[in-house]
Amino acid sequence: MAIRNIIQTDDPVLRRRSRPVEKFDDRLAQLLDDLIDTMTKAEGCGLAAVQVGVLRRVAVVDCGEGVIELVNPEIISADGVQEEQEGCLSFPGEYGVTSRPAIVKVKAQNRAGIWHFYKADGLKARAFCHEIDHLDGVLFQSRVIRKEP
Ligand code: ZN
Predict the structure, then answer these.
(1) What is the pLDDT of residue 9?
(2) In this structure, is residue 5 part of a structural domain?
(3) Over residues 130-149, mean pLDDT
(4) Alpha-carbon gap, residue 10 to 37, rounded angstroms
(5) What spacing in Å lies between the alpha carbon of 23 and ligand 1's midpoint?
(6) Residue 10: predicted pLDDT
(7) Residue 4 lies in a domain
(8) Is residue 63 part of a domain?
(9) Residue 31 near residue 49, CB atoms below 8 Å
(10) Residue 112 domain-assigned?
(11) pLDDT attached to residue 149
């Protein structure tokens, strides 16, 4: 396990699309362990592999109920709208109110390649959307509808 450096500049890599994971090997497990450690140390509730410079469709989310591993995640349905303050570990000190779905259903593999289904609302729904956006090179700033809550 290791803490990796989070990209905290407006690096063009953050706007690139990540590639699907095909091998569920020790390297993937190491990446997930490192993402979990790095997210926990930074006190974030989500972190995508691209934020540590790895262009693979891998992210972790922890909204206080334990870590969820998102490998090749996809939003399978989205309902309603929520408008809440949002930030990003890659842009410390930068916040804005985003428009996100109120409820999402997501499917994702874990480190073993097993598919899991998640239903989330509130902060967890936002975290899923935020991290999946990262895998498509989309930053939260493009979802900001206003600067003040
Ligand atoms: Zn982010």
Answers:
(1) 87
(2) no
(3) 93
(4) 23
(5) 25
(6) 87
(7) no
(8) yes
(9) yes
(10) yes
(11) 58
Ligand 1 centre distance from Cα of residue 149 (Å): 19
The rounded Å distance from CA 13 to ligand 1 centre is 13
Q: What separation in Å is there between the alpha carbon of 80 and the centre of ligand 1? A: 22
Cite the active site residues: 131
Q: How far is residue 78's CA from residue 85's CA, in Å, rounded to a whole number?
A: 19
Which residues are within 8 A (CB) of 5 and not within 5 positions of it... i.e. 6 or more apart?
Answer: 52, 53
Give me the mean pLDDT over the 47-59 stretch.
Answer: 98
Backbone φ and ψ of 32, nearest 5°: -65, -45
Both tokens assigned to 81: 């709208």
Q: Domains in the chain: how many in total?
A: 1
Provide the whole-model pTM.
0.96
The per-residue pLDDT for range 79-104, each reduced to its tens digit, is 999 999 999 999 999 999 999 999 99
Looking up tokens 């926990």, which residue turns up?
Answer: 40
Q: Which residues of 31-42 are buried (b: 16+ CB within 10 A; e: fewer)?
A: bbebbbbbbeee
* Neighbouring-strand partners of residue 97: 85, 146
Q: Using the 8-state DSSP alphabet, how is residue 7 labeled?
A: P
Q: How many residues does the chain have?
A: 149
Which residue segment(s) compose the domain that 125 sits in?
Answer: 12-147
Q: Are 100 and 129 in contact (CB under 8 A)?
A: yes
Domain with residue 140: its CATH number is 3.90.45.10
